[in-house]
Here is the input.
Amino acid sequence: MSQLKRNNSQISETFVDHLEQHGVSRRGFLKFCSSMAAALALPTGSADVMAEALSAAKRPTVIWLSFQECTGCTESITRSHTPTIENLIFDFISLDYHHTLQVAAGHQAEEARDMAMKDAYGKYLLIVDGSIPTKDGGVYSTIAGRTNLSMLEEAAAGAAAVISVGTCAAYGGLPMAKPNPTGAVAVTDIVKDKPVMNIPGCPPIGLVMTSAIAHFLTFARLPDMDELGRPKAFYGDSIHDRCYRRTFYDQGLFAKAFDDEGARKGWCLYELGCKGPTTHNACATMKWNEGTSFPIESGHPCLGCSEPNFWDAGSFYEALSVPQGRVGETVLKAAAVGVGVGVAAAALNRSNKSAAVEGRETMTVEDLKKES
Amino acid sequence: MSERIVVDPITRIEGHLRIEAQMDGDKISAAYSSGTMVRGIENILKGRDPRDAWAFTQRICGVCTLVHGIASVRAVEDALNWEIPPNAQLIRNLMIGAQYVHDHVMHFYHLHALDWVDVVSALSADPKATSELAQSLSSWPKSSPGYFSDIQKRVKSFVESGQLGIFSNAYWGHPAYKLPAEANLMAVAHYLEALEWQRDVVKIHAILGGKNPHPNFLVGGAPVAISTEDTGNTALNMDGLMTIKGVIEKMQTFVDQVYVPDTLAVAGFYKDWFAKGEGVGNFMVMGDFPAKGNNDVDSFLVPPGIIMNRDLSTIHDFDLNDSSQIREYVAHSWYDYSGGKKEGLHPWEGETNLNYSGPQPPYEHLDVDKSYSWLKSPRWKGHAMEVGPLARVLVMYAKGHEQTVELANYALKTLDAPLEAMFSTLGRTAARTLETKIFADNMMDWYGSLVANIKAGDLATHNQKLWDPADWPSEAKGVGFTEAPRGALSHWIVIKDQKIDNYQAVVPSTWNAGPRDAEGQAGPYEAALEDRHTMHDPKQPLEILRTIHSFDPCIACAVHVTDPDGEELVQIQVTG
Here is the structure.
């Protein structure tokens, strides 16, 4: 942990030169690292460790595979405001294969992937979005004449770790919804011998994806995760527990229709079908699109999109059958006894969240920044 | 023997697309378009609550996110004769408009530009000359020599690192790149600026739909209730309205000062692309942006209409419900019809027997004499039709829409090109830019109307009358359509006993990217590639990418499925 105690002045001049060569000011870069450390609820000083790790002379290779997907996850990562996608791909990672963004097509694209896997074998980060069809030999989705299954197996073999972004890659998602016409499965159904982190959501919040990637780049391992493989920093609490409308739930004030008086006053959407009580995600705290809003704030019940099988959990407008208790507490207790990596970070994270849950307050990224 | 080029994956698009091009010397003599991924969303929809359908269909595509949501809620509303409040109409228009502007700008800079812009060439640009170039084109403030010098340093450091990331193994230095170094540098700067800009544009979706991508919709109106407080309660409060206004201003400024001038500047160096890549010469528009409800097509900003054989003097009408008009063919698709693979079926009567008959992976080539795509081939009265920005601009131009006529004439005059130049790869790309300006300019009107309604005390956003499915007839069917950024999109729904009995979608990229039909007629992608394309180096498919990207492909899904007993369940054909 001694490393974590370094201060900014100890960052080498070489590093400053390096930043400037990248067209990044020293101040701007440190701000970037602080934001990420804050988003991940890392301990004080982590920003500097992150700064050093990210300024490595050779940018770590990232290979991004897209299977049965809608490109919503890629779109979402471009919405991350700090770190931004351009920060990541031009300054901190080498995104050597990504269908939506890469210039090369066809043979040149496949060759770029082959070269990257060979050069960084055992070290690269593999990111996957979309589920993998397994029925009928996998003919329902091919790239360059190959099945998704064979491409995933090949790429996973040389990966240091795998991140499944979006509910499709994490849990099978929409393609796996009943009756699962193409035999779609999640990444973890295929990849068994590598560390895999799930960043579910349909899509996930962009900032959650970029922050999780930055964590891996900094510490060369995945952050503390829950039993569903999700980083606790972002998925530790239910939407309900952190919702700004929670106070209305506690008072029994519910919107009964979409534009009745209660709806206009921002009352709880529980009776209109909100799945917030059973959904774990950061929407109520970080919110979407630079903290602009999130589904409940914009009047729509939470769909529950970061949970496995949410497509098959009944109508989105059907109220949950049993009123929910203090779900967040249960989860926190479960987390507290869990064993994981990144203990210090997780502990800090947990204590912040405990305080917020107790106080029934919404904790924002800004609050987290103050803490770290 | 002539070579068959394969480009798979086609990158910088949505979804999974493969192009095979048969070469005759250096010319493309035949081209084949194949969608290579299916999910089966139609089968998944069967038996579910029609009010939920928008969320499922929206996940067809996360790039043109929202268009399937819009088409879906409109389909249910059409089936049940469910009118929505004026505010909900305005909120939807604002969301569709923001989607257009966002999607088209990102397509231009992040998906299409690098077909025309050589990033490596930007290294040799003179920042001062770049500044002069930028200032000659526009009053956009980020144009100083120092600014371009910083961008150049950043690119230089990136290139010299030897790790080119998303730019690796590309076509830098290819002789088809014609821009001067300064124009390349300016475009690279705008590539980065557009990434930043788009994060603000989507805040309109975040306020009105809770998030982007995949904002929320609601059958019968809009989910967001209006709060008349300054802050708090709901996102659509007075603060939220001010944010929307500010974002609209930012959108307009970027379109006027960056996107439009860049398009014209880049196009000026590639005028030869005004003479190839035409496609089928037939265009279809279903129409959108209603002012007085979805049934009053005369109130649409984008009117419906069909143009045949480039003839702008006659705009044909069409009828979605006439089974002799829109039909889908599977002669070269991985599906069977009970009446044989040669017949065409109206979507209402569509059959959907999934039957992959292509080569077993891994494979080198598709058997293009047989079936070769997961996409069907939609046709109007037997004709292949192009949909999308070019179709819309042509129909609006032909109908005399004032701003369209003015803008198109201005662009053509600036580029010293005749109207016929629009029937081309570059014409398609230019049309996308022109319509972006038209939609961006209309955003403030919709915003103003919404504010006026709120001031007058009208806060209605949802028509609750039919929310309870118990109030629905036991059987109903409807059509919902929208003009998605990539073209005409229609969803058909059949509701039985309050559940989805049948659901179908015929989607823009299906019209454009579908394979040959029973008559052997090529789809628009295929026809465009067969129109005067020569390849400088068949191993470097830059020319193919230019024309395919001019359509802005969105190949998310194309599915017709049966249940395990072989009985037809639901039909849908979807791409984005």
Observations:
- The two ends of chain A are 15 Å apart (CA to CA).
- Residues 1-57 of chain A form one domain.
